[in-house]
Design goal:
Blueprint: H1 2-11, H2 18-43, H3 53-74, H4 76-83, H5 92-123, H6 130-134, H7 141-151, H8 153-171, H9 183-206, H10 231-234, H11 237-244, H12 258-264, E1 268-269, E2 281-287, H13 310-316, E3 319-326, H14 332-341, H15 363-368, E4 373-378, H16 387-393, E5 398-400, H17 402-405, H18 419-432, E6 437-442, H19 468-485, E7 494-500, E8 523-526, E9 534-541, H20 545-552, E10 559-560, E11 575-579, E12 582-587, E13 590-594, E14 599-604, H21 620-643
Parallel strand pairs: 2-6, 2-7, 3-9, 4-5, 4-6
Antiparallel strand pairs: 1-10, 3-8, 7-8, 11-12, 12-13, 13-14
Helix pairs in contact: 2-3, 2-5, 2-8, 3-4, 3-9, 4-9, 5-8, 7-8, 18-19
Length: 649
């Protein structure tokens, strides 16, 4: 392969000029990025069901703009060392050092891009700079990477093939010594060409040469798409990381005046009446990657489908649950602040943002005022995902992780203690706590690589997806937990809340790949006296949990929560999340997509479950009313974050 390419280049007299060679080397990188874009699409076909060849080619062309920026950023030093007008750049050892620097830099860049072939399934957006902070507290990163390489060997093989192509083609682009024999002309020409190339590189990095041109960023990808999810095809991952590095700050928003915005939407909750506070215990269980499609109870319209959660389905018959319930993010670090502190993830996860030091109120911090015992349980190694630090900021006094469990025999080898063992430990510890108490548990087992203990492998039948046995296993672990808890003195005096951190990357039904399906998680409130039983056909979301729990207990002090009370019906039902750099606002029958400046899509998700028909132009009044509310919500969120006003003074 190398000889034909080398011969072709020699025949065209291209290899004799160092500047022509540089251009070919940069074009090689851009070609590899385009191949990556094709690979990204092929690895994630199911997430782009309506793609046509013509539209994909348009996305490919749009992506070249972002590939150029990435190529120039990754090779800025290589370019500088190539164009500097000195003879050293033609010496063999210098050229060898440049070559291996090129291989190393671009090899890392391609590896990051290919890794998103897989990671996209979990986040549904191109990875940004916050990924480094997300995993900085993990103690098992090496084992996680090895496991991912093993399970997703096809992506690793794709990367290796890219590296082979890069090496072969690069080696076919050789450079000889200076073509200009006149030394004066050699230095004069080099001194002119080098600044010119530097200027072109500067303009390429910015995305234009005009003084008014703002540096190209993620939002520019929206110019090439009709469906916001296609933004991930246009972008590449290194570009997303470059453009978000150190740029997690929110901008102050002034859609309304300070008095007007509170009339449209306010996150401040005030007690409704003087009803006496009810000191019930509160237990919140957050299930890892539990999509709503795993439940039989939430899929009754599917003939013959029984799901993989027999216990939770039976519990749901005695609980308050919601037909349209959504997560406020796509990652575990999005879910925890949403559930326990009513803080949605609108862009960067809250506790990876510069505002994570803000004073906040949470279920734990507010109930501590009522003398509640507060605790958090997560079977992973202590500090995993930064949960321990966040829960400390949220006012939780006692943290129970793998260290406190203190029995590595029950470690699953990757994520933490097996769910059935840790849930039994959870029940035992709750029995030791003084009442009233509030405690939250975050499960770990229903996560890639989707394994269950050897002792239980024959107990579950599973289904078409590899995660289905894990779902059955965690459902079984919950049944055992409730069996033990039901025998305690605190059980009947406890409000249980069950939800998921986010949906699974494993998706069986096409609805699960839509703008609403990606966020469809269970939300269940259970009281052992059956006082809450009944499915409610309205919109609910994770950030509604905190105000609903507090209002259920008749909490009598004001607080800040971005959700609403689901039990007393205060305020119009809505939900919000952030996908592909677009806000998604749910209200009534509709989902509005808003890019921060204007509405870009409107879908009737009850009649058009696959979101095939954008009706923005047909219902401008609906879109206008929803846009008013999402603007107010964004303004309250951004401005309160910036001003550190997430509590009531």
């Amino acid at each position: 392969m190398g000889r034909p390419i080398k011969g072709l280049l020699e025949g065209l007299e291209l290899r004799k000029n160092i500047f022509t060679a540089l251009g070919l080397q940069l074009l090689l990188v851009m070609a590899l990025l385009s191949i990556c874009r094709i690979g990204f699409y092929l690895f994630n076909l199911n997430f782009f069901p309506e793609m046509s060849l013509g539209h994909f080619l348009q996305l490919m062309l749009g992506g070249l703009r972002f590939d150029l920026v990435t190529t120039l950023y990754c090779n800025a030093l290589f370019i500088l060392l190539t164009i500097v007008p000195v003879d050293l750049r033609f010496h063999e050892k210098y050229r060898i050092a440049l070559k291996y620097g090129f291989f190393f830099t671009n090899g890392i860049m391609l590896a990051v891009n290919v890794a998103d072939f897989i990671y996209y399934k979990f986040t549904l957006r191109r990875t940004t700079a916050d990924v480094f902070r997300q995993f900085e507290n993990e103690t098992n990163v090496a084992s996680l990477w090895l496991r991912f390489l093993w399970d997703y060997w096809c992506a690793a093989l794709f990367w290796l093939l890219l590296i082979v192509v890069m090496i072969v083609v690069y080696n076919g682009i050789n450079v000889r010594g200076p073509q200009l024999k006149n030394r004066r002309m050699y230095y004069i020409t080099g001194s002119i060409v080098a600044p010119l190339i530097a200027f072109l590189v500067w303009g390429g990095m910015r995305g234009g040469f005009r003084h008014s041109t703002r540096p190209i960023t993620l939002s520019n990808a929206g110019a090439y798409v009709k469906d916001p999810r296609d933004i991930s095809i246009v972008l590449n991952t290194p570009f997303a990381i470059f453009r978000t590095w150190g740029k997690t700050n929110l901008q102050k928003v002034n859609f309304y005046s300070d008095t007007e915005v509170d009339k449209v939407y306010s996150p401040v909750h005030y007690p409704n009446d003087s009803t006496n506070f009810r000191p019930d215990n509160v237990v919140i269980i957050i299930l890892e990657s539990f999509s709503k499609e795993f439940f039989g109870a939430f899929n009754k319209e599917r003939p013959g489908y029984h799901g993989y959660t027999p216990f939770l389905d039976s519990l749901n018959q005695h609980s308050a649950s919601f037909t349209y319930s959504y997560a406020n993010g796509r990652k575990s670090i999005d879910g925890l602040p949403s559930v326990v502190a009513s803080i949605p993830s609108l862009g960067v996860p809250y506790f990876l943002s510069p505002y994570s030091g803000n004073k906040i109120n949470s279920i734990a911090s507010l109930l501590k005022e009522k003398k509640y015992h507060t605790s958090f349980f997560h079977g992973a190694p202590n500090g995993s995902m930064g949960f321990q630090a966040f829960m400390n900021m949220a006012g939780v006094d006692e943290y129970y992780g793998m260290t406190e469990y203190d029995d590595d025999d029950d470690f699953d080898g990757i994520w933490g203690i097996w769910d059935d063992k840790f849930l039994q430990y959870f029940a035992d510890k709750l029995d030791e706590f003084p009442q009233p108490f509030t405690s939250t548990l975050f499960s770990v087992s229903s996560h890639h690589p989707f394994e269950i203990p050897d002792r239980l492998k024959d107990r579950f039948k599973g289904g078409p997806l590899v995660i289905h046995k894990c779902i059955e296993y965690t459902d079984y672990a919950l049944a055992e937990f409730f069996r033990k808890a039901s025998k305690t003195i605190w059980y009947r005096n406890t409000l249980f809340v069950i939800t998921a951190d986010h949906t699974s990357s494993e998706i069986q039904f096409p609805e699960g790949r839509t703008g609403w399906g990606f966020y469809s998680v269970p939300l269940i409130f259970f009281k052992p006296d059956n006082s809450l039983a009944g499915e409610r056909k309205e919109i609910a979301q994770q950030i509604d949990i905190m105000p609903s729990v507090l209002e259920f207990l008749n909490f009598d002090r004001p607080y800040v929560a971005f959700g609403r009370d689901l039990f007393n019906g205060n305020g119009s039902p809505f939900a919000i999340n952030y996908k592909d750099n677009v806000y998604q606002y749910f209200e009534g029958d509709y989902l509005l997509q808003f890019d921060g400046t204007r509405s870009v899509g409107l879908y009737n998700i009850k009649l058009d479950k696959l979101m095939l028909r954008d009706v923005l132009g047909e219902f401008p009044q609906v879109a206008g009313q929803m846009e008013q509310k999402v603007k107010a919500l964004i303004q309250q969120y951004n401005n309160r974050m910036l001003a550190d006003k997430l509590t009531v003074e």
